[in-house]
Write a structure and sequence with these properties.
Layout (H helix, E strand, L loop, with lengths): L10 H10 L11 E3 L9 E3 L1 H4 L2 H12 L8 E5 L2 H13 L2 E7 L5 H10 E3 L3 E4 L8 E9 L3 H12 L3 E11 L4 H7 L3 E8 L11
Parallel strand pairs: 3-4, 3-7, 7-8, 8-9
Antiparallel strand pairs: 1-2, 4-6, 5-6
Helix pairs in contact: 3-4
């Protein structure tokens, strides 16, 4: 059972996950391709096929948990795909959790409420109730593409006094420059599986 404080700070749980997590090449991570999204010639790997089944979701969460650095205290899940992953990881690892909302497409009346209750960044927001000053935060999302949203998230976390040098992803789309963009800002991207820009049809099989 996880108990906050003392020497039992979730680290024992993470050590167990490190031992139990499967090697990347052994992970069964099926996905459905969203053709030409977010741009022509790029297929987005939708993880829903895997996350909707416990037997496939559990080893993915275990593998991500094994990559959380020991100094991390809070996980920041990016809307939409990173939210469920971050929540599961936080529970497994005994860590805090916050949600990162994307605001570019929200209606005006929703934005007025957002402005009153959230700290605003570059297209992303964090609740004003989150206490991040002096704490180490790792970003979580389902897929790394250009790295723009993750970078905006890290910048906002840092502006609020938090430390952010790690981002966790299930997928990264090769050739999109996401890893390099994050690395230039001092953020290490830890990825379970790199996929080509145009996904093979076989990847969609269940």
């Amino acid at each position: 059972m996880y108990r906050a404080g003392g020497e039992t700070h979730g680290r024992v749980m993470i050590d167990q996950l490190r031992q139990a997590a499967k090697r990347d090449e052994e992970l069964d991570i099926p996905f459905r391709s969203w053709k030409n999204h977010p741009a022509a010639g790029v297929d987005f790997p939708d993880l829903s096929i895997a996350t909707s089944e416990a037997a496939r979701m559990r080893p993915i969460v275990d593998a991500l948990a094994s990559r959380i650095p020991a100094h991390v205290e809070v996980l920041a899940g990016i809307d939409i795909g990173g939210l469920g992953l971050a929540g599961a990881l936080a529970y497994r690892s005994g860590l805090g959790f916050i949600d990162i909302r994307k605001v570019d497409s929200l209606r005006n009346e929703v934005m007025r409420s957002i402005m009153a209750n959230y700290e605003l960044g570059e297209g992303v927001v964090i609740s004003k109730g989150a206490r991040l000053a002096g704490r180490h935060v790792a970003i979580v999302d389902d897929c790394l593409i250009s790295g723009g949203t993750a970078l905006a998230t890290a910048r906002l976390i840092r502006r609020l006094g938090g430390h952010c040098d790690t981002a966790l992803f299930v997928f990264a789309i090769e050739g999109m420059g996401g890893r390099e963009r994050l690395a230039q800002s001092g953020i290490i991207a830890k990825v379970l599986r790199t996929v080509p820009q145009t996904a093979p049809e076989a990847a969609e099989s269940a």
